[in-house]
Amino acid sequence: MFIDTHAHLDYPDYADDREAIISRAAAVGVTEIISIGTRIESSSNAVQLASEFPGVWATVGIHPTDVEETPEDYLPRLRQLGQQPRVVAIGEIGLDYHHLPERDPHHSWEKQVSEYKAKQEKIFREQLDLASELGLNVVIHQRDSWDDLLRVLREYTGRIRGVFHCFGETLSQAQVLFELGHLVSFTGLVTFKNAQVIHETVSGIPLDKFMIETDCPYLAPVPHRGKRCEPAYTRLVAERIADLRGVSLDEIAKATTTTAKGFFKFNPKSEINHAESL
Question: Quick check: 246 pLDDT over 70?
Answer without folding.
Answer: yes
